[in-house]
Amino acid sequence: MIDYTHAGAILSEMVQIGRTFRVAGQRSGQRSLTGTRYGFLQHLSHCDARLTELAHRLLVSAAVASRAIDSLEADGMVERRTDPDDARASLISITDHGRAKLTESESNAVHRFADALSEWSLADAEQAISILRKLNVHLIEVTDSPDSSDAGSSKPLTATATNTTITNHGSEIHR
């Protein structure tokens, strides 16, 4: 079983990766498809969905999902229509424009990412993919735990059973 120090180090590295992608999106100089907007378009590229389904899928609150869909709709990337199974509800669909923007964004991101990892071997990439897939499977346990019932919660994850904090650069601070 992994100890709190190593779990904290993994969490810290994941936070740093998230920050890196967020900053890269902000610095791209355009209204990029990152985070929630990107995730919604990815999901909608496979099937139409209700707002609540999208919120649940990306683990965000209904308010966050609503703002993201409003933004995508204003940009012409999604459209709403009445759900044929329930006239009170709306289905959200990706538009041709949204599909084109998603493809463009994915292509740009993949090229930039490949350039950043140009010194990696194929074995390094396969190992990273394997570990990330395994991590994603186990992270489902975090989102399915009783403490995670509010998907839009901003409560931080804490590990109070340890007196060691791992900084973003991997160094330890003992309290």
Order of helices and strands: HHHHEEHHEE
Q: What general outline do the C-alpha atoms trace?
A: globular
Strand content: 5-15%
Q: How is the biggest beta sheet arranged?
A: 2 strands, antiparallel
Q: Which parts are unreliable, with pLDDT below 50 for 5 consecutive residues or more? A: 148-175
Helix content: 55-70%
- Cα distance, first to last residue? 23 Å
Considering the protein shown, what is the CATH homologous superfamily of the largest domain?
A: Winged helix-like DNA-binding domain superfamily/Winged helix DNA-binding domain
Structural class: alpha+beta
Q: How many structurally independent domains? A: 2
- Broad CATH class of the largest domain: Mainly Alpha
Strand order of the largest sheet: 1-2
CATH architecture call of the largest domain: Orthogonal Bundle
Overall average residue pLDDT: 81
Count of DSSP strands: 4
CATH fold-level label of the largest domain: Arc Repressor Mutant, subunit A
Instruction: Output the radius of gyration.
Output: 19 Å
Quaternary status: single chain
- Counting DSSP H or I runs of 4 or more residues, the number of helices is 6
